[in-house]
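hiii so um. not sure if this is the right channel but i have a protein structure encoded as tokens and i wanna go backwards to a sequence. like what aa goes where. can anyone help
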């Protein structure tokens, strides 16, 4: 049932955003974003969760994992505005690494 999938996605997604906002539960945010991704009812929602998972990885200094997700988002034709955000963030990460 797509409503059940959407409910599961939203539960994990918004819980993860709460953890991210608090900056104290990044590990919990990562767990919940991974659950949201596995319960996504469509590819755009998956992309939203992947975007925030990349941000969570950056907060834990797991830059390689973040970069992999950003590259995945950039290659996704259904990523909407997250595609451009991912491209800009990945470009900034590469510039900072070169400094």
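sure thing!! here u go:
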């Amino acid at each position: 049932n797509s409503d059940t999938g959407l409910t599961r996605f939203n539960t994990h997604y918004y819980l993860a955003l709460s953890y991210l906002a608090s900056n104290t539960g990044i590990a919990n945010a990562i767990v919940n974003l991974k659950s949201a991704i596995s319960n996504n009812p469509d590819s755009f929602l998956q992309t939203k969760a992947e975007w925030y998972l990349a941000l969570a990885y950056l907060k834990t200094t797991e830059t390689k994992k973040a970069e992999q997700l950003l590259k995945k988002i950039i290659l996704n034709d259904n990523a909407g505005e997250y595609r451009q955000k991912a491209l800009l963030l990945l470009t900034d990460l590469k510039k900072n690494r070169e400094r």
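oh and The helical segments are 2-22, 26-38, 43-59, 63-75, 81-98.
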